[in-house]
Amino acid sequence: MAETDEHEARLEIRFSGSGGQGILLAAAIVAEAATALGKHVVQTQSYGPAARGGASKAEAIIADEEIDYPEVDTPDVSLCLSQEAYEKYAADTRPGGLLVYDSGLVEPDDNLRGRNLRGIPFTQAAAEHLKKTVVANIVAVGALVEITGMVPAEAAEAAVVSRVPERFRDLNVEAFRLGRRLAAEA
Amino acid sequence: MPASPILMQGNEAVAEGAIAAGARFFAGYPITPSTEIAETLSRRMPEVGGSFLQMEDEIASIAAVCGASLAGQKAFTATSGPGFSLMQEMIGFAEMAQIPCVIVDVMRGGPSTGLPTEPSQGDVMQARWGTHGEHSVIALVPSSVYECYTLTVAAFNLAEQYRTPVIVLSDALIGHMREAVTLPEPGSLRIAERGIPDCEPGEYDTVMSDLDNILPRPPLGSAFRVHVTGLVYNRRTDAPETGDPEVAGDLGRYLREKIYHHRDAIARVEEYEMKDAEVAIFAYGSVARSAKAVVKWARARDVPVGLVRPITLWPFPTLAVDRMAEQVRTVIVPEMNLKQMSWEVQAAVSGRAKVVDFGRVDGKLITPTQIEELVRAEFYYHDWSKS
Fold this sequence. Notes:
Chain A has 186 residues and is an alpha/beta fold. Chain A is built from 7 helices and 6 strands, in the order H-E-H-E-E-E-H-E-E-H-H-H-H. Chain A has helices at 3-6, 23-36, 83-89, 122-130, 136-148, 153-163, 169-185; strands at 10-18, 40-46, 55-63, 77-80, 98-102, 116-120. In chain A, a hairpin with an 8-residue loop joins strand 2 (40-46) and strand 3 (55-63). In chain A, helix 4 (122-130) crosses helix 5 and helix 4 crosses helix 7 (169-185). With 387 residues, chain B is α/β, with parallel strands linked by helices. Chain B folds into 3 domains: 6-188, Rossmann fold; 201-263, no CATH class; 270-386, Rossmann fold. Chain B has helices at residues 10-20, 35-47, 58-70, 81-97, 124-129, 145-162, 172-176, 245-260, 263-266, 285-299, 318-327, 340-349, 368-378; strands at 6-9, 25-28, 51-54, 75-79, 101-109, 115-119, 138-140, 165-171, 178-181, 269-272, 279-282, 305-310, 312-314, 330-335, 354-359. In chain B, strands 2, 3, 4, 5, 6, 7, 8 and 13 form an 8-stranded mixed sheet that branches. The longest helix of chain B is centred in the middle third of the chain and has 18 residues, at 145-162. Chain B is globular. Strand 2 (40-46) of chain A pairs antiparallel with strand 9 of chain B.
């Protein structure tokens, strides 16, 4: 399909990792931030019958026009938070697209020429700075937003606030900001 | 002030649509990929003064829904394929006893446990013929989060208007998908209320519904004396009467005609770029989204392809299909099952156009590329290299 020539104003993002890493939440945050901007937004997910483990993915499409086909086959931006997810999904990234991975958990291979690779140790940074690896997904969202500008950082941070339980709000906002700093520094 | 867009999941939209339609009773047994409907309602029903019941299984769930509806509540349940199968007997009871209610089936791959987290359209014929015996049914198929909301409202209205179970056929993709939506203002929705018959309670067994005047059933416990039975009954008294073929035949035909007589009023279809179409894609639910992308792709290349999207799958939209059959030379029917609706389209088209089917049962959405190949084959003489 000739998606590329007709959907210029369509950004496709895939978030992947293993079940339990908060992949779906990461996608929902980006989708909610784009919704607040008045964009057309679709967010989908794919996982197996098990709640934990296994490669899982969630996707968001942000567009200026109506989104018909809701699936993402060749993402413009990919995030991989586990080796298994990297091996399963990284190669789908559109040539010329951006591939961001957790450099503490993923050993990248050399077969992805033509994509812009960017490794950031999200989980390790979350452990060091926040003492919680569970917010590595939000660190990654912060980094993605900083690198791509896919949604304004303020809108994304507002979506973090609205999507996480109140008692974990501060932790998640800190995680989001940490991700932005890591992306800006490197 | 116009509402601002929000990010909402299809299953959440079903739950909110039901509440907007006035549903105040939900009984269900959670099952992927419908669970978020129950989850949302477990929170929302108490907030709006309604009841949320988690039952021991799906049979009990639909039974509780029938009971609540007979007592006067707008009631519904939500499930997926395996639970939908279990509910069929009681759906038949609701057909027979003419109990308004809504059943949401978020379709997943089957049969049996199948592909619990993946979408399918394998239940479209189960929706039509899942319960035994001659009966009619209304089934609606949303293809967006917005429609999960609006069609759930429509389902309750149709259930009340025609005193019948109405099925909403969502799927794992639409149910789990989140979209930016601006929901209609609650005040802008048409909501059908139950009402009571326009007669004295003592005269109730002298009045009888006809096809153009379907009387509401008074709630159990009111001054009206009401019979409810799964047996064949006399339509005037509602009392069981199995010994008279005339009575049985009258009821049997009435239950079918109650829907069929009104099918053109009930059937809703989206016709997109059909004006000069030579080839039509007949697609519903999530697959219709891929089909629409293909129509846009084809139109950008001056290839006359259109989309006929049934929003009402049952009763089958014969009027729109007739129009299509008279106009196009080929109808492409992509669906996430193997020919279930394609047979129906073929029967309705009745030789007036070629019907090309394409099925997928691997739990993945049919892609635009797959439909494009079928379109290219129909326009083999088009110079595709130019576009």
